[in-house]
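Thought: the user wants the 3D structure for the chain below. I'll pass the sequence to the structure tool as-is, report back what it returns, then summarize two notable features.
Action: structure_tool
Action Input:
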Amino acid sequence: MLGLLLCATACGASAWPERLAEAVDAGTLATQAEALSLELKPVLLLDETPDERVIDLTAWYRFAAFFSRIELKEELDKKCLAWLVRQPNLSRTVMLAIGPSEQPDKVLNVLRALYRTDRETMEQWPELVAALAVVWDAPAADSVDDPLSRGDWAVGLYHYYTRANPKLRYNLKEMPYQLQTYVVDLVVSEQEVAWVWQRYGKRGDVGGFYFDVPYDYDAYYNGAAQKIADRVYTLENLQKSGGICVDQAYFATQVARALGVPTVTIIGQGGGGEIAHAWVGFLDRRGKQIVWNLRSGRYEEQLYWTGQVNDPQSRKSISESETSLLGELQNAPPMKRKRALALLRSRELFPPEQQAEVLLQSINLCAADSAAWLALADLGAAGSLTNDQSNQVADVVAKFASKQYADLAYQVYLKMISGRSNIEKLDQLEKIVKLFPQRPDIIASIRVEQGKLFKGLKQTDKAIAAWGDVLTNHLYAGPIVLEAIQLTDDTLREEKQGKRLLAIYDRLFKMIPRPTPSAFAAWTPYCRVGIKYAELLDDANDRNGAMRIRQQIAVFDKTVQITSPTK
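Observation:
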């Protein structure tokens, strides 16, 4: 019976592109989406369903559902979409790439611009077109903000990358679109790209690009205007004039992307009392393996445990672990990768209690998409996972925690337990903490969460003890220290335990790491804790003590008024 069903549906498969092309013109895509959902749902989770069948049905369903959300008035738009759905490789890849952040009118703007100029070749470059469609539908670059410019910019990038592909560091015909989003988010001019090839075309050290921008020490330490401020902000001028870490990261990112290397700027907070810092991550070949190298410009002595990345597709801030996870794409054949993506994109067809099976199948095929992990965590938080499913997810996440995906693993764990009682959460957190022995910042974050839970249970002393562990044993955990002291401050003020709070500030200020003197030191944990400590001493009428603390802070923050403010 199953064989007959698969045969019957497969026999009618080739008719769908024409039916959808006609529906574009007739304005009946919503009706076709409903029909496709009824055909897709029964076979989606069956192992016997061929990969191509699942991929095609999902792509057609998503095409109909996605573009039915807008009214197609222009004849060119209708021609573009009718043409797109008839291109098997292109339509598959583009429709599976489109995520929840995409809007159909903006995606169509990019596709239409490419269709007008390059429809004869687009089927040969499906992953590149998909990356352009999901990045340039709503780019972050201010210089290409209006819809027409976005489409034109995407066309320019398409021409550049297709022509330059033979000499690029990676072959974009073979690279999955997820990685190409970190390539095509290129915002420099043609003249700058030409300069890149002249200066860096034969240089292989991508990680070293970061250090080719001389550091502007006068701007950092003394707050002077940056030297680049007097010049046009171009790559060549940056290399000549220098800049600070953000400029170094921008330079390296844009140079590497021009050469066809997936690259990203990472922003993180130092654990050693330093302010935010920017460094670079890039796709790196290590023998036969391709992995993300996230260490260029990341100074170990400043304890930049982790960082945040701007996702080129969603334009949201994500953990660097989520970017690094894309390295898992190489562990699955292309058809399995696409089937995994088809499952992820089709989970909306099922009720929450069945979505776990869809997501688990997707992850088993290819574990590279953090959206699948986080969606599973949401189901766990909502109580939609069985005990077996929860254990299965926890076991796999535990393995990932031992790799370079610790931040994602922790994020998944926190989501999964968010729907449980405070007592259950405390028990789970105590188990989780053992998974991250090499990440004191995550351990500190867990202690902060435990303290919040204890406070919710009216167990104030246990809450203060949990936060006190951070303030005693994890002072190199960066901004988590500030959260722990703020929670402690709020709680002890509520409890009217001023003397106890004063003693905690006294001990903390003596132990907290001092920053390197710079124009930005005023925003470090040392200065921020010191200011609050001085204010507390003022409240306790210890003006001499407050003045002594402010004198120490003034070494790093010249704006600090040493004498206590009059009241």
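Final Answer: Structure generated. The two ends are 86 Å apart (CA to CA). Residues 240 and 469 are 47 Å apart (CA to CA).
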